[in-house]
Structures are given as structure tokens and as C-alpha cells.
Amino acid sequence: MLRGINLGSKRRVPMADLRALLTEAGYEDVATYVQSGNVVLTSPATPAELERDTAALISERFGFEVPVVARSRAELARVVKHDPLGDVVDNPKRYQVSFLSAGLDAATSKRLRGLVTEPEAVAIKGREVYAWHPDGVARSKLWNALAGSQLGVTATARNWTTVTTLLAMAQEGG
């Protein structure tokens, strides 16, 4: 999952070009989902190796740095299975999972929990933060903290529809 691409006129990464780049680099079954940097592929590389290698390829080809956060199919399946807020969520597009490059420290986790305003909810498990924003993200202090750079780790968020679609794509790919 690529962070912060195709959000405006800068940092543009066409998905067809990204698929071609990754295929040329030897990855198999390369597929993308929507225009926000969701890639599913087959590789013997570890998620950490994929993060490093794909970030380097993108930087070389497109001329700017793009943080990459990767999960294996099994890790993504655990994220979906865990689903700590599924009993309260009624709109998957307002249910976000932030995928982190590393777990949060205790102080940051506490700060995030303190930003929740009813009826929002948050659950932190390992390298994922599940956040329910039933009233949207526009005025959410929790969302602003998750989307910003004060977490101390690289993070990129996807709504629940995207998360479950990526898992389905990964399961189809082999």
C-alpha cells in the first residue's frame, strides 16, 4: 500500500505504469485496486523487503519518495478476521484501518484513544489501528492524528471495503 499518491496534481503514479514497473522488476500476478496505491502481487520476498524494494523502484521511476507499507496475505487475513469494531460499524466506507510500519508506543496509543469523540471508536492491535468515523473524517481529531505525521511511524489508511477487497484479490492471486 502506497501512502500519499494521486491525491492531487503532484505525486502522480498511474496504476498501469506501476503494474508495468513491478512486473518488469520480476513480481508476478501484479494487480492494483483503485487509484490510491493499492497493489496485490505474488513474491517470495518478505513484506519488509517489498516495502524497501518497491519504494526504491518507485523513487527511481517517478522521481519522488513514496512510503510503502506491505502485508502478506496471511497478515491481511488476520486484520480482517480481528475486526474489533465490526459489531458497531454500519458503513464500511467510514471504517478505516491504518496500516503502520511498526507498532505504536504506549504514549501515542494513549493519545489516540484520548482523541476519540463519541460516536467514534478506535482499537489498536499490533501494527494496525482500526477507527470508526460514523460522522465522517472532516472534523475528526482522531482522523487528523492518524493521517498526520505525528505517529512516529509510517502509516497509510484504507477503508474497510478496500481492506476486504485487497484480501479477496490476494486470495485469488494464489
Q: How would you explain this protein's 3D organization?
A:
The protein is of the alpha+beta class. It folds into two domains: about 1-70, SP0830-like domains (Alpha-Beta Plaits, 2-Layer Sandwich); about 85-160, Alpha-Beta Plaits (2-Layer Sandwich), CATH 3.30.70. The protein has six helices and six strands, in the order αββααβαββαβα. The protein has helices at about 15-25, 45-60, 75-80, 105-115, 140-145, 160-170; strands at about 30-35, 40, 95-100, 120-125, 130, 155-160. The strands form two sheets. It has a four-stranded antiparallel sheet. Strand 1 (about 30-35) and strand 2 (about 40) form a beta hairpin. Helix 3 (about 75-80) packs across helix 6 (about 160-170). The longest helix is centred in the first third of the chain and has 16 residues, at about 45-60. The protein is globular, with a radius of gyration of 16 Å. The chain starts with 14 loop residues before the first helix and ends with a helix.
Q: Using only CA atoms, what is the Rg?
A: 16 Å
Classified by CATH, the class of the largest domain is Alpha Beta
Q: What form results from the Cα inertia axes?
A: globular
Structural class: alpha+beta
Average pLDDT across residues? 95
Runs in which pLDDT lies below 50 for 5 or more consecutive residues are none
Binned, the helix content reads 25-40%
Q: Strand tally, please?
A: 6
